[in-house]
């Protein structure tokens, strides 16, 4: 099979196979260990994955521009950038309308699907036993944050309650206060739990509404449940991987050839990072004219970290400026790893919700790159 056909196969299959691998890991009982590494509020998820289209745009475009030069064919280089910009614009618009919003006041497609299949922003704070509902926010931190927000809203609108609601209002505020102060279950009876939940739901929708998107619901401490919720993470990671692999086809061969041609230079820069150990330096200070103890300590303890930092800066600048394809490949591996974690984390979504997120990204990127396949094959 030619290298172009291999790349085609990888481009088409890597995301579905990654999701399938996640399911197999779960099926064979290895999912629990992987799920333990997953942190919704972690730096990687909050700063990189959730803002992944920004990072992917930045690194992708830096590579497209850095590797655009085709020797002696500036016209072809410009045509390629124009084609990449067209593909990128289509995928960015699709990313936006599927995850951010279709229009002012109109939620994104993934939330419209959810709402039209019966989904809602719930406030099932207490379960039937009068304890805080474990499914409400999924973690103690998020539950405490949500309850504090609900408590603030109810307190802010305490005077807006009519006589009938006043009693329910004070019981709701009191129950939430109990949980916030003791971080344990409030003394809410089973019969009262449903009434308090319903009151909190009505108040939050009244004062903070409309809560018709997952972002608004999450922002105001609600629980987005009850409908078919396509996985935004599966959609986003698939879209990003398909874009990076698709554009890698344009410049990948040239970029990797350039990287291979400079392999020894890069290897030398990497080994210099480790060539600064204090013992190694101490031994080198011996020699024919041994140095004073102070001078040897300076050479062994101060100079190595400085030399290491300088070597790291040189290596970073070399990769960022001359071999950004390394950063692109690192980003690709990160998104695939996050896609695997999302597939393993079965408690977040059903398989159908994963598949709908995958198909939503896969179909659009598949059409975009299939249309340009002929032009890409000539690359
Ligand atoms: C010569 C031509 C040059 C072309 C110029 C291109 C330059 C490229 C550089 C930058 C362009 C950037 C354009 C895109 C901007 C993207 C901005 C962002 O990504 S900001 C992040 C906004 N989103 C968020 O903050 C996260 C919101 N959350 C979500 O979207 C969802 O949580 C989720 C989709 C991440 C997960 O879904 P859910 O099911 O968990 O709700
Ligand atoms: N790989 C991953 N790492 C961390 N959190 C993840 C994740 N995949 C999904 N999640 C979290 O699981 C929830 C459902 O994700 P999605 O709907 O995008 O598949 C989201 O929670 P939040 O939206 O409350 O942050 C998301 O942050």
**Structure class:** mainly alpha
User: CA-to-CA gap between the ends?
Assistant: 17 Å
Largest sheet: 2 strands, antiparallel
Kindly report the spatial arrangement of strands forming the biggest sheet: 1-2
Order of helices and strands: HHHHHHEHHHHEHHHHHHH
Protein name: Acyl-coenzyme A diphosphatase SCS3
GO biological process, one term: phospholipid biosynthetic process
Active site: 233, 349
Keywords: Endoplasmic reticulum, Hydrolase, Lipid biosynthesis, Lipid metabolism, Membrane, Phospholipid biosynthesis, Phospholipid metabolism, Transmembrane, Transmembrane helix
Write the topology of this structure.
Blueprint: H1 3-27, H2 31-36, H3 43-49, H4 52-66, H5 74-99, H6 109-116, E1 120-122, H7 140-156, H8 163-182, H9 190-208, H10 214-219, E2 223-225, H11 232-261, H12 263-274, H13 278-285, H14 293-322, H15 325-344, H16 351-371, H17 373-377
Antiparallel strand pairs: 1-2
The structure holds the ligand CCCCCCCC/C=C\CCCCCCCC(=O)SCCNC(=O)CCNC(=O)[C@H](O)C(C)(C)COP(=O)(O)O and adenosine-3'-5'-diphosphate (A3P).
Residues 50-51, 53-54, 57-58, 61, 81, 85, 92, 99, 214, 231-233, 236 line the site of ligand L5MCH7JB.
Structure overview:
It is a single chain. The chain is mostly helical and 379 residues long. The chain folds into two domains: 1-106 and 231-376, no CATH class; 120-225, no CATH class. Helix content is 73%, strand content 2%. It contains 17 helices and two strands. The protein has helices spanning 3-27, 31-36, 43-49, 52-66, 74-99, 109-116, 140-156, 163-182, 190-208, 214-219, 232-261, 263-274, 278-285, 293-322, 325-344, 351-371, 373-377, and strands at 120-122, 223-225. The chain has a two-stranded antiparallel ribbon. Helix 1 (3-27) packs across helix 11 (232-261), helix 4 runs parallel beside helix 11 and helix 4 packs antiparallel against helix 15 (325-344). The two termini are 17 Å apart. The structure holds the ligand CCCCCCCC/C=C\CCCCCCCC(=O)SCCNC(=O)CCNC(=O)[C@H](O)C(C)(C)COP(=O)(O)O and adenosine-3'-5'-diphosphate. Ligand L5MCH7JB is lined by residues 50-51, 53-54, 57-58, 61, 81, 85, 92, 99, 214, 231-233, 236.
